[in-house]
Amino acid sequence: MQKKIILLTLISTMFLFRCGVSDSIDRATAVIDNGIKDITAESAAWSTVLQQVAHDLPADISSSIRNDVQNLASRSIATAGTEIRCNVDFLAARAIASLQWIKARLKNDQSVPPPPPGFCQVVPDAVDLNVTNISSINKITINGYDLDHKDPAGNRIQFYLLKGNGQRELIPENRVGRTTHYQVTISLSDMARTLYEQKVTKIISTWDNQTASYPEVVVIPWMKKEKEERVNLGVTSYMPPKIRGGDGDFDTDDDDHMSIEARGEIALGGPTTLNCRVYLHAREERSNWTEVGGYSNWTTAYSAPIGWKIVSYRPFTNSTHTANITSHGGIYYNRPAGEVVRRFQVFGDRDGDEAGTWTHVEVTWQPIQITIAQTIPDWAR
Q1: Are residues 308 and 238 in contact, defined by beta-carbon separation less than 8 angstroms?
Q2: Which pLDDT does position 271 carry in this prediction?
Q3: Average pLDDT of the residues in 231-249
Q4: If you classify domain 119-220 with CATH, what class do you get?
Q5: Contact, 35 vs 97, CB < 8 A?
Q6: What superkingdom does the record give (predicted)?
Q7: What is residue 372's predicted lDDT score, i.e. its pLDDT?
Q8: Among candidates 15, 114, 108, which has minimal Cα distance to 62?
Q9: Can you tell me whether residue 50 is helix, strand or coil?
């Protein structure tokens, strides 16, 4: 009989305890529901309502639930300060979502997921690789709400470099400063070259393997610059060697002449250099047939600055002039403006021997307009 009394007492106690717990949960649920209604009706009052919800929860409610509500009120008030720029509607919506999740926990309802981090401001909203001072690309600051929340897999918000080929590269944790629950800073120090070389298009964030609605920062690609330079190549002189003939004398007069052909050429020596050379051929048109001829070596007329390449140049038409010489001394031959040579001065004959010792040409070049373009940013050299 005594055992039956004890058993009945235990059952009654358990029933009363369960009733008490159930009643406490119902009252807590009602408090939360009223809070959701109040915020929905007047979003600007969200912070006051949250504090009231925390105050009105039953005293015997779970300490875990009580802490969640209190943290929600405290965090919401903190994030409304100068650190971020969330508007009232955003903060009110966040408060409602958080209250709904807390309510689901009260009822042991696992179908309602925890609210993900919320975001208010990203500074800067783009990273421009065209800056002159690369030290200005040093960090990204993200302000928001619950930035320390973990997803179902236990991971906080992660950040990736999104490359042009669609691949992602995780930004290591040692570059992420999780300052507070409402601010995260990503260090970009010394990363400009990586962003440039790996053709990164965006810096994106993920939470629970999702990217939609999470912050992303556009990387504005480096664009090569072009500019023009006017180059004066001056004068090039060349004396060809004797190649055949009986003696070294070009003996010219009114009836006997020497034929000449002079050339001036400019060509790219590679993406960064412009080269020039000169040609002269002269022959005595008589029985002696004294003859000289040949090309000078290519010489560098212009070199682009480091980090630049030659895109085009003008004029680009090489020059050739042929003539017959019947007199002594230097003779001028002007060329059209559209050619690379402005003037040839040919020294063909004089008294005595000339072949290989005096006969030569002096080329006065046209000024060359050269367009050059950057190959890499100045800061990446």
Answers
A1: no
A2: 96
A3: 92
A4: mainly beta
A5: no
A6: Bacteria
A7: 97
A8: 108
A9: helix
